[in-house]
Predict the 3D structure of the following.
Amino acid sequence: MSERPRVICHMMSSLDGGLHPSHYTESPVGAKKEWDAAYEAVHETLGGDAWLVGRVTMAEMAKGEPHPPSDHASIERPIHIANRGAERYAIAVDPSAKLHFRKADINGDAVIVLLGSEVLDAHLAELASDGISYVVAGDRQIDLFESLKTLRAEFGIERLLLEGGGGINGSFFAAGLVDELSLIVAPTLVGRINEQGFVAYGDEGLKGRV
């Protein structure tokens, strides 16, 4: 039995690998909604216990402002479990502790935040007071393999859907932690020279790594 969840990278891209739908070429009326619906349908079919995104992607959904509680005398490190045994989890990788949330779930999925070691107590207190679980890494940079082990051991996550952006996807691929790729290819183009793809990993890319 594996000590980490099975990781399925599930993404949608243009024909030329572009990540951002806002950059896609003009499409027939209603087409983008159909593509989104197809993506969500496959998401459900894959049956993940959790889905995971990077900070930038989660910020579009969290939409919170800093609101640390005035009293935070007792802070749990390295882990705080606000909701054990949730039906599904929404996981954010936030090494620098920049995310703030308006509620403890994303569309009903309980939030877990993976943080770097230098996160301030005030930020942890904010998450805990919001009913949000968190895991603090042992270093500034989050060890993805160790984080996956913790997610399985503490939250019972066996099947995780990795859903971008490109940077966090690239980090998982580079670490050899992606077991399966599920890709919805929209019949459209981007054509930008410097467009980020659905997988991105520095200037050298993934040559020789995957």
